[in-house]
Design goal:
Blueprint (H helix, E strand, L loop, with lengths): L23 H20 L3 H28 L3 H8 L2 H9 L7 H17 L4 E8 L2 E7 L11 H12 L5 E5 L13 H4 L11
Parallel strand pairs: 2-3
Antiparallel strand pairs: 1-2
Helix pairs in contact: 5-6
GO biological process, one term: iron-sulfur cluster assembly
GO molecular function: iron ion binding; iron-sulfur cluster binding
Protein name: NifU family protein
Length: 202
C-alpha cells in the first residue's frame, strides 16, 4: 500500500493566510456593534471621543474613494457591475457614499423583484408605483397576510425597500384596506439601522 502523501504546511498567500470572511449573520452583528459604539462615542464628552469620531469619518471617506475607483474600473464590464450590485452589503455602501450607479427607482424595483417569490408563497405581491418627494409608493396585493411568520407583508416590503434605498425618507404601502391618501413613514431610528444582510434565506 502506498504511503500517504505528507501534509503540506500552508505557505504564504494560501487560503490559510487570508483574512476570515464574514457571513451575513456576522456582518449584521458587527454593524449592530458599530452603531452602539458610535452612539456611545457621540454621547461621550471630551476631546478623545471627538478625535475617535473624526478618525471614523476620515476612514469612511477614504474607503468611499476606494469604492468609487473600483466602480470606475468595473464600469466597462456590465456583468461585473451586475454581480457587484447584487451584493446587499456592497450596494448599501455604494448608496452610503452616493456612488451607486442605479437610480433609486431601479434599486427599489430590484428589491421588490427579489422579494416577490417570498411574497407569492404567502399569496401576496408588491409593485413599485413610483417615487414622490423621496417617498416610495408601493402597491401591495393581499396585504395584511403574514410573511415569514407573524410579520405583516407591509413591514417586510418596507424593510426591503429601505435596505435597497436607505436615502428615502419614507415608504407608502398601499393595500386594498388602506386609503391612498394615508402615508406610512418609517421612523428615523429605522433609517439609522444597518441594512439586513441575508445569506439567501427564504
Amino acid at each position: 500500500m502506498a504511503e500517504p502523501a505528507p501534509i503540506q504546511e500552508a505557505g504564504p498567500g494560501t487560503a490559510a493566510d487570508r483574512p476570515r470572511r464574514l457571513d451575513g449573520q456576522a456582518i449584521a452583528g458587527r454593524l449592530g456593534r458599530l452603531d452602539e459604539t458610535l452612539g456611545r462615542l457621540e454621547r461621550t464628552p471630551g476631546a478623545t471621543a471627538e478625535t475617535a469620531l473624526d478618525a471614523v469619518t476620515f476612514l469612511t471617506e477614504v474607503y468611499g474613494e476606494a469604492l468609487a475607483r473600483v466602480m470606475d474600473r468595473a464600469s466597462d464590464d456590465s456583468r461585473l457591475i451586475e454581480a457587484i450590485l447584487d451584493d446587499d452589503l456592497v450596494g448599501h455602501l455604494l448608496v452610503l457614499h452616493e456612488i451607486h450607479p442605479e437610480p433609486v427607482e431601479r434599486r427599489v424595483a430590484r428589491a421588490l423583484d427579489a422579494l416577490r417569490p417570498r411574497l407569492r408563497r404567502k399569496g401576496a405581491d408588491a409593485e413599485l408605483v413610483g417615487i414622490q418627494e423621496e417617498t416610495a409608493q408601493v402597491r401591495v396585493k393581499a396585504g395584511g397576510c403574514g410573511c415569514g411568520g407573524a410579520e405583516p407583508v407591509e413591514d417586510v416590503v418596507r424593510e426591503a425597500v429601505l435596505a435597497a434605498a436607505p436615502e428615502l425618507v419614507g415608504v407608502h404601502v398601499a393595500t386594498p384596506d388602506t386609503s391612498t391618501s394615508t402615508k406610512t413613514f418609517v421612523p428615523v431610528e429605522a433609517l439609522l439601522r444597518p441594512p439586513a444582510i441575508t445569506d439567501g434565506a427564504p
